[in-house]
């Protein structure tokens, strides 16, 4: 085990997918229910790893701080977005290091981002609604040279599904199913 | 690295490394095994396979047959250290809980008999079942299983699953609509037995495999009652086949063992559970199992011959109300048995007049069959569901699962059919004569 990833199993999976591409298709889903105010509860749906159904019984809550009319009962959606981005970049970095044979001792990614809520509020300024920029630093110790780590950083971002989803235009296809209640 | 010999599967090598490379540069692919040495199969027939597959002669002395590697641990060199670091420790000898040449030899024989890429032997059938099921299930997962499961498996699903946050729905193995309807979004496995106990239902495994594949769940089958001479279960679309090897596979009622066989990918997922749960098989037991397996094909033919003759005799006896033997035309699953089974087995279940009291008198009057639980040995074994496998049930509960009073479980050994028939003839005459005298 290098970095607690079985390199042989990783290699065998990559080679399996090369000949059976259906094994690479992952179907995900979550369901979010409004609880109260700005607080909501997310539940994972079953996942499919290739053609195989996998149980995913995980739940978590999101909320806003009291200053934003919430109760501060959980991380807010922006923190969860950064968490999803950073955790994916982390997997990519660790898997890439393992494939190269780099032994890691510690890895930390520190994220910062500034949001201007005037966009959300519709206050008619030039402020973007979303993050205009996301800043991060990766702190790593391991047996590679600074040049090797720099190259690993580049490759891990270019292969990270969540980083690439954020960097590239993505279709957001929704519909609303509404029921009007009698007041 | 060249100074030391590779102790293990020499074809298994460390994944290559490319500085600056990515995942697609990794070239190690999965292969069947692990195997100790490249010994080509001398034939493809199942009798030849039973004798020769996996078995190797001692390279130092020429002694015929696999030596017993009665060792807990192995001398280490850089190849073993590397296998641990790179995650292919299953392919090297390190410690006997991880793997041992005696285990590998019998695993290779079992894999060849089942037509599997890989197999693992365990210290019992239940160790094989627990390790396999928990390898293929995640937190919150659900299994759809047969409602007439073996008691040990039932206890795992009924007693242990809730503790682990897992659940099970048990359904009639004949009711394919109900089986399909029981599959939930968190269902990861369908778990069935090839032939059920004690009514010897022959389960339509190809039909179950079709459902499992279409609904994206794994199909695991316990084929203890249908060893590979009778049925190569994996050929019918099953993902992993499990056996209690204590029964037909070993065949001599002298050890406890289990096996799981299937694609290398899934068996490699089960292997860490062997390590974590600790159900490894002792080298001496591996030797006994390997030796027992060499005669599997001839034993199965002998079981079928004696069991068929005895089943016909019992069916013609006026005091025998019902006989369940899959190769009798009267068996409810005769057509399925003819389609799926290439060889019969020794299991016969029958119901005699006079209820459980008469059945108890019968097993006491017989001289050849031993009154004992288990099955698949060279000696005939006989037991009654009412005081063994279904002893916790009431008469009504037994009737609900099809077990009538007077039900007898018989595992016919390889004794001569004529002797078995004579023994039953004598015992049946004696017990009903006793009863008639008693009431006279």
UniProtKB/TrEMBL annotation, chain A:
Coiled coil spans: none
Name recorded for this polypeptide: OsmC-like protein
Pfam families: OsmC
InterPro entries attached to this UniProt entry: KH_dom-like_a/b, OsmC/Ohr_fam, OsmC/Ohr_hydroprdx_reductase, OsmC/Ohrsf
UniProt superkingdom: Bacteria
Gene3D superfamilies: 3.30.300.20
Transmembrane segments: none
Automatic annotation (TrEMBL), chain B:
Segments of skewed composition (Polar residues): 11-21
Lineage, uppermost ranks: Bacteria, Pseudomonadati, Pseudomonadota, Alphaproteobacteria, Rhodobacterales
Position of the signal peptide: none
MF terms in GO: cysteine-S-conjugate beta-lyase activity; pyridoxal phosphate binding
Cofactors: pyridoxal 5'-phosphate
Entry coiled-coil feature ranges: none
Protein known as: Methionine-gamma-lyase
The family this protein is said to belong to: Belongs to the trans-sulfuration enzymes family.
Any Gene Ontology biological process: transsulfuration
Residue numbers spanned by region Disordered: 1-23
Keywords: Lyase, Pyridoxal phosphate
Organism expressing this protein natively: Litoreibacter albidus
Alphabetical list of Pfam families matching this protein: Cys_Met_Meta_PP
Keyword Lyase: yes
One GO CC annotation: cytoplasm
InterPro entries per UniProt: Cys/Met-Metab_PyrdxlP-dep_enz, PyrdxlP-dep_Trfase, PyrdxlP-dep_Trfase_major, PyrdxlP-dep_Trfase_small
Residue(s) carrying N6-(pyridoxal phosphate)lysine: 247
């Amino acid at each position: 085990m290098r970095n607690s990833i079985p390199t042989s199993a990783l290699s065998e999976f990559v080679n399996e997918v090369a000949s059976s591409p259906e094994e690479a298709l992952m179907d995900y889903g979550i369901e979010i229910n409004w609880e109260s105010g700005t607080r909501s509860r997310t539940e994972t749906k079953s996942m499919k790893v290739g053609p195989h159904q996998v149980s995913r019984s995980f739940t978590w809550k999101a909320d806003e701080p009291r200053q934003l009319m919430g109760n501060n009962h959980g991380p807010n959606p922006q923190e969860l977005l950064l968490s999803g981005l950073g955790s994916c970049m982390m997997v990519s970095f660790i898997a890439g290091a393992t494939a190269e044979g780099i032994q890691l001792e510690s890895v930390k990614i520190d994220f910062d981002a500034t949001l201007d809520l005037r966009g959300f509020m519709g206050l008619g300024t030039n402020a973007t609604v979303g993050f205009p920029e996301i800043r991060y630093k990766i702190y790593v110790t391991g047996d590679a040279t600074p040049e090797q780590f720099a190259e690993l950083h580049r490759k891990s971002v270019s292969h990270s599904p969540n980083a690439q989803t954020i960097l590239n235009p993505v279709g957001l296809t929704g519909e609303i199913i509404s029921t009007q209640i009698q007041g | 690295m060249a100074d030391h010999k590779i102790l293990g599967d020499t074809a298994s090598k460390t994944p290559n490394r490319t500085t600056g490379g990515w995942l697609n540069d990794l070239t190690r692919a999965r292969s069947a095994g692990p195997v100790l040495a490249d010994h080509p199969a001398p034939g493809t027939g199942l009798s030849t396979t039973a004798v020769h597959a996996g078995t190797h002669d001692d390279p130092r002395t020429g002694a015929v047959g696999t030596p017993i590697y009665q060792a807990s641990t192995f001398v280490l060199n850089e190849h073993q250290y590397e296998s641990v670091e790179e995650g292919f420790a299953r392919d090297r000898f390190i410690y006997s809980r991880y793997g041992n040449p005696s285990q590998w030899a019998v695993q290779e024989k079992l894999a060849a008999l089942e037509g599997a890429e890989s197999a693992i032997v365990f210290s019992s059938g239940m160790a094989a079942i627990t390790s396999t099921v928990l390898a293929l299930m995640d937190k919150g997962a659900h299994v759809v299983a047969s409602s007439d499961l073996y008691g040990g498996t039932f206890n795992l699903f009924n007693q242990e699953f809730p503790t682990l946050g897992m659940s099970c729905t048990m359904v009639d193995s004949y009711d394919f609509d109900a089986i399909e309807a029981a599959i939930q979004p968190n269902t990861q496995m369908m778990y069935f037995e090839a032939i059920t106990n004690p009514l010897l239902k022959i389960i339509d495994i190809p039909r179950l495999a079709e459902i499992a594949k279409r609904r994206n769940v794994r199909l695991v089958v316990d084929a203890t009652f249908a060893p590979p001479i009778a049925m190569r279960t994996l050929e019918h679309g099953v993902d992993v086949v499990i056996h209690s090897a204590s029964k037909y596979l070993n065949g001599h009622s002298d050890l406890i063992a289990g096996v799981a066989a299937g694609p290398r990918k899934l068996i490699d997922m089960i292997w860490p559970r062997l390590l974590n749960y600790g159900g490894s098989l002792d080298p001496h037991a591996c030797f006994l199992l390997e030796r027992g397996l060499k005669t599997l094909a001839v034993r199965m033919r002998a079981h079928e011959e004696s069991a068929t003759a005895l089943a016909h005799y019992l069916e013609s006896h006026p005091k025998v109300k019902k006989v369940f033997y899959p190769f009798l035309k009267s068996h409810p699953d005769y057509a399925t048995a003819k389609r799926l089974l290439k060889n019969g087995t020794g299991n016969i279940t029958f119901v005699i007049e006079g209820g459980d009291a008469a059945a108890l008198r019968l097993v006491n009057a017989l001289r050849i069959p031993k009154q004992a639980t288990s099955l698949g040995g060279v000696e005939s074994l006989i037991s009654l569901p009412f005081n063994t496998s279904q002893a916790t049930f009431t008469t009504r509960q037994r009737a609900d699962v099809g077990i009538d009073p007077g039900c007898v479980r018989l595992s016919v050994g390889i004794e001569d059919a004529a002797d078995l028939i004579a023994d039953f003839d004598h015992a049946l005459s004696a017990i009903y004569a006793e009863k008639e005298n008693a009431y006279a």
